[in-house]
């Protein structure tokens, strides 16, 4: 990956804090977890970086690449508890080897926990130079709370926005949801400073990826299929789905629900007997079902920050009928032709769509916008942080010297410069100082490994020479030494 080393983000290290919400028993179901999919997108957008991801212990997450290190971590298996529980002690004392590893950014997918995360790092004598980025998958507001009695969490979300360099929402509608917390609240009578909020906020709209090749799927013969490809709960508008489709000619139409929990939901009513409920085990079968359907249906009529499923049919040039919602103006576009706002409008659309009708509608370039926003903000944060950094460091020249000798693993650098010091928050600052002077980190290494490109060696040597008489504490024979307490094992890219 050395061909990318002139990229300002090359070799930067990211710590990902997940928000795992899809479980079966105690096993994490990554393939159905939208939060996980966002995290994977960020990794793909940043191939020049090293990614350390705290993942649930019980999982079958595939290998995500040479530049990705998956570390089992103690997450809550409850969606609600996830917003309040973080095992900071495990992170601080057991997860990260601070004598060998570094981070430049935190990507936090559970904003309510950002203080806990950073506090844990600082208690480990680390985190002074970190820039934090939040990803809001859920916004606390009256419409999104489970019940009126559920504790309000928006103050913690505001805290996270204030603390982070940037926080990402799916679209501007999310900010409207957050603002709704101020209605008729005595303690928020002064209102929300929208300008400050907007300066700290950017957006991560999500597009659907490419579908796998089609696979055979059995469908009831002689029926025109209307596909409800969303979760079965009140937030997805199932009451409207039932009301709007109950009078359709059942000899002609079949409403197919792809969430099998609709048969016995944990809360709310099950799907009526005249609906066909069947989950699909593969993406290829799901594609075939969409292609065999007349249209997919979306009835979200209340809280919604984004929607991926509504895009699936359109990606395959099939109609997707959507109950008109402010969020869809950002997901599909203001002029999308298949919105409906009433039962009559819905039935009118249904009757106008022939069985073999396709739709040629260009979805907005969501993923490209997300990628551009993310990369620009990361680079901007690095430029901003340079203004705060010291121009001098006692040990920086030593690190340059040993790195120039090809001995750039952090543990070896510390063995030469800090042999008697157990922990110091100065170490991350020294690394940053070196990176600002032409040194590079290695994205495919779990452990920090500094090196100097050929074209930068002369300028680095000049810094060393101008420093004068520096005690490099190395072996007089070769000028540098390796820590005898650890050894390199390249078979598994770990050290012991």
Number of helices: 16
In the CATH hierarchy, the third-tier topology of the largest domain is known as: Rossmann fold
Global structural class: alpha/beta
Largest sheet: 7 strands, parallel
Q: Residue ranges: pLDDT <50 for 5 or more in a row?
A: 490-496
What is the overall silhouette? elongated
Give the CATH architecture of the largest domain.
Answer: 3-Layer(aba) Sandwich
- Tell me the radius of gyration: 26 Å
CATH class of the largest domain: Alpha Beta
Averaged pLDDT: 89
CATH superfamily of the largest domain, by name, is Glycogen Phosphorylase B
Q: What's the domain count?
A: 3
Question: Could you give the order of strands across the largest sheet?
Answer: 5-4-1-6-7-8-9
Secondary structure tally: strands:
17
The helical percent reads 25-40%
Identify the notable features of this structure and list them briefly.
alpha/beta; Rossmann fold; disordered C terminus; 496 residues; six-stranded parallel beta sheet; seven-stranded parallel beta sheet; Arc Repressor Mutant, subunit A; single chain; elongated; 13% strand
Plain-language structure description:
There is one protein chain. This protein is 31% helix and 13% strand. α2 runs parallel beside α3 (114-123), α13 crosses α14 (410-417) and α13 (396-404) crosses α16. By secondary structure, the protein is α/β, with parallel strands linked by helices. It has a seven-stranded parallel sheet with strand order 5-4-1-6-7-8-9, with helices on both faces. The protein has helices at residues 34-45, 88-95, 114-123, 154-163, 173-179, 194-199, 238-245, 283-292, 309-315, 328-331, 343-352, 366-386, 396-404, 410-417, 426-435, 454-466, and strands at 13-17, 23-24, 27-28, 50-56, 68-73, 105-108, 131-135, 166-169, 201-203, 224-228, 253-257, 276-277, 295-298, 320-323, 339-340, 488-489, 494-495. It has three domains: 2-205 and 372-382, Rossmann fold (3-Layer(aba) Sandwich); 224-363, 3-Layer(aba) Sandwich (Rossmann fold); 391-495, Arc Repressor Mutant, subunit A (Orthogonal Bundle), CATH 1.10.10.
